[in-house]
Amino acid sequence: MRQSLKSICNFLFFARSKARGYTLIELAIAVMVGGILIGAAASSTGVYLKNQASQTTLNNISIVTASLSNYLIQTGAYPCPAPIDAARTDPRYGIAGDCTDTSVVDGSCGNGYCVQQSDKVWNATPPVGWPASKAWPPTGWSDRARRGAVPFRTLGIREDEAEDGFNTRLDYTVMESLAVVTTYNQKNGGIDVYNNHGTTNGHPGTPIVNSPRGSQGGSMQYIVISHGPDRAGAYSHDGLLVNPCPPLYSTWDAANCQTGSSLTPAIYYLADYAEALGINHFDDTVKYYSSVETPLWKVAGSTSTNLNDLVGAGDGPSMGKVGIGSAPSYAAPSAALQVTPSPTSTGSAIIAENNLDATLLCPYDGTSTNCYAPALNLTACAPDPITHLPTYATGFASGQLVCRPAKVMCPAGEFLAGIDPTGNLICQTVIGCPAKSPIQMCFNTSTGSNDIDTIPAGYLYQVYTTPVDGDSFTKTYQCKSSGAGSANWVKTGQAGVCTCTAGTSPATEACNVYKGDNCPNCWIGIANFSNTTACPGGATTQTYVSDTCQCNSYTNTWTTSCQSGFTGSNNYSQAYACIPGNPTAVGTWGAQTMTSSCTCTPSTASQNIDCQSAGHPAGFAGSVTQTRQFQCPAGTWTGWTTTTDTCACTGGTNYRQIGCTAPQVGTQYQQQTISCPSGTPGPWTTYNSTCGSVIYTWQAISTGTPTHSPPTIEMGSTCSTQGATSPCGSITGPSQYTLYNSCQCE
Questions:
Q1: What pLDDT sits at residue 14?
Q2: Would you call 640 exposed, middle or buried from its count of C-beta atoms within 10 A (0-12, 13-18, 19+)?
């Protein structure tokens, strides 16, 4: 483009030098060519910025999902969503909520989040093949999915990494039971993702991932969504709704933001990308996670209980026992853990580097004459030749007892928090909870008051469950931090009943629920059951008795509003057809039809954004008001135009933390001053630093060889260049050494 503009200038200069001025024709040609080039440049810039926004969205969603996985590994559960509409000055902004709080009911929104019922419970009948003796949904499984914002502060990621490339907050939905440590179970995913093909249970689309439980859908643990360029249903950087959600099913991505409705279970959509308006419109970015449990045990052969890997043997005398070995002729394991070497091998071993709980340690020779009791092994193992400290038996290798030095531990009442550069343990005092009483239990008719329990003193994160009271009633508490180095017992749940009455009672169910169609007008009659309550525990099982269910052909009609900027309505209809000659069978839904009376209506929208979102540099405060127009008949919005700008430079200071220059480790704390009136940030200066060198030790990484020559470098001595290698050795006796060909500085 630069060369083209240069050509225009040359043309104008040539015309002027020849005629000493410009004619109207020359000026018109120049303006026309310049306009074409500028338009092409603007179009290219728009495509570039759009691609950059999409790439930023993908990168940030990847960061969020990786952080969620790390959080699960560290804490044992996912974080609860943060409030989606919290202002950036709100203390709750970016902080995970409490997923044990059920004050917001299914199908509604409040406190910055929305709750939907899982698709598993929405389909109230169990899947095909589900055992009649088991409850559906499974006992203890929550049916609630909570939707809000990514809790970036809880996850420890940057604020902008919890937003998409279109400057709106990413949506984060998770099953509530998976965001609580005491109820987390990887099998309990209940969120579903559909594609845009076919119809399932009256809902458009087909489930993408089948449930690990065998049901038709509802297997996702969590889902992260960007609402794309149209930002329909998205919240801005400042927590304001950018654009309202389109009517349900008016576009394929409409269901991805229709959360506050009792008509929609936790079903989300992933369709082909299409920006054009209409039913096929879909510009969202969707990423979900579904966990299917992978077996940890594997049988070595189809006809053998001997194992290549650790396995749980099948039914019979070996059930619950673990064996290691590969020869198919060996007998099934007879001990809880049995290591069986092959007849020609002398290298098989069993060694526990940390804890080993066993009555005896014996070599596999068919006798017990060489066995050692782990608690009495001080005479069996010699002291460590270097430290001269006692050693302990931890197993057998090649028929010989394996001895390891005693582990160094923190004193009682303290826990290990780390290791300093000199190799010393960093121990911290355990934060504990004092005893708590009274804990009210069941009402006792003989005393006329509630039974009382007392929780003894405990330590941080300890879980306490009360003794069973009444029929089967218990309460559960956890010792949780309350800040400033203190902790208190917090109730986390209760289970069971105080009183239980055994017996059987009749029950009925609507035919549409019994048949699993979720269409009350498609069925006539009821299904009869008997409910049997067993004590103790009060568990109730339901048994089918009879039914009078008859299929009823029916046409369902409904109306939805037009998309934003249009007036009128969209009218839908869908027919339910029974199977001829088989009135008790489940019918089929036909295709949906739609007629529309929507008419484009011009309108104006406005928004308030902060100074940085409007393009001002850091150090400016105030707000910017922008407006845009909805144009007819195209049905498109114009770009945002600034009408009011109150932003002014206020100055300030930015802070950051960066790592130290290698080979030093630690943190540099830096600050940057913003000058007014330009708002130009100054250079970064360091005001505090923890940088320092790290001391490492030589560690053997090769097999040792006996020698009488002392080593040049002694194993365990200090070094400073991490990763360097060199020969080293250790003392094994008087004038006796072990030389290692290769040691590493670590």
A1: 43
A2: middle
